[in-house]
Specification:
The chain has about 150 residues and is an alpha+beta fold. It contains one helix and nine strands. The longest helix is centred in the first third of the chain and has 24 residues. The N terminus is likely disordered.
Length: about 150
């Protein structure tokens, strides 16, 4: 009788642990971002002119990067203005960014941080989006961005 109770107890404990592990593997995890300013650009092209700060983060093979840390800094003294995280499809957007010059820094583990100079302008019909190309850390070229329509 003792072995039967012990076996039943072990079986129930196994079910509890299996259920707990299944639930843990399906939790939504929010990444922790370092809010430090980074610039690994070898060359600094002129700013991308945008009407809104929005776009998509992808890796070198064009796969969307979900959970990338997004940091929007002022150009002049690199004051942090807004933070965000890319969505499951890699898209991102910042709300109510006033006209001016900024730096969009995108970080993701295993990739070189992108630092993209931006000039936000108030221009009707400006629909271009920012395409961020994340490259692995240690690459000859670092991550960058460009405008897409």
């Amino acid at each position: 009788m003792k072995s039967r109770k012990c076996g039943l107890l072990i079986f129930c404990a196994g079910l509890l642990l299996a259920g707990k592990c299944w639930a843990c593997s399906h939790e939504q995890i929010t990444p922790t971002c370092s809010s430090s300013y980074e610039n690994h650009n070898q060359t600094d092209n002129g700013p991308l002119k945008v009407g809104a700060v929005a776009g998509i983060a992808k890796d070198g093979s064009g796969v969307a990067v979900s959970g990338a840390c997004l940091l929007l800094f002022t150009e002049v003294n690199h004051s942090l203005m807004q933070t965000g995280v890319s969505a499951a499809d890699g898209t991102f957007s910042f709300q109510e960014v006033p006209p001016g010059r900024y730096r969009l820094v995108i970080k993701y583990n295993g990739f070189c941080a992108a630092n993209i100079p931006l000039k936000v302008i108030n221009k009707a019909g400006q629909k271009a989006k920012i395409a961020v190309h994340l490259r692995p850390s240690g690459s000859d070229t670092c991550s960058d961005g460009e405008l897409t329509s």
